[in-house]
Amino acid sequence: MTQMSAAEKQAFLADLHVGVLSIPDPGRGPLTVPVWYQYEPGGDLWFLTGANSRKGKLLSEGTAISLCAQNEAPPYQYVSVEGVVHSIGAITDEGLPMAVRYLGAEQGAQYHNSGASNDSIVVRLTPRQWLAVDYSKM
Description:
The chain is globular, with a radius of gyration of 15 Å. By secondary structure, the protein is an alpha+beta fold. Strands 1, 2, 3, 4, 5, 6, 7 and 8 form an eight-stranded antiparallel beta sheet that branches. It has a single domain, classed as Roll (Pnp Oxidase, Chain A). The protein starts with 5 loop residues before the first helix and ends with a strand. It has four helices and eight strands. It has helices spanning about 5-15, 55-60, 95-105, 105-115; strands spanning about 20-25, 30-35, 35-40, 45-50, 65-70, 75-90, 120-125, 130-135.
């Protein structure tokens, strides 16, 4: 059996992974790109993106999107979630914690202070559908 319990899926998604986001792009295949994201078990998943980036232009409230997080080394594991964007807003205090989560305290502060996320927006969704595999359970 390679399935994960609901608690295992949520814990895995909450761990540090680079997510792979898929956004519908009418007339083309979906836009599929890596993103930094944050998730707390039982809560919303959120990420930052540039308001004028291709991602930012494709996203709006009500857009159905998917995100997959994985371990790339054996035993392979992944969690994929689908949900509908319910909130897009201006970045407030999310930038620094996100940068520190992925880059560590020193590099995260440098990244944040460089203004790299000045045009960023915060995108939030509640995961509705979950897919997961944990090959360590084989």
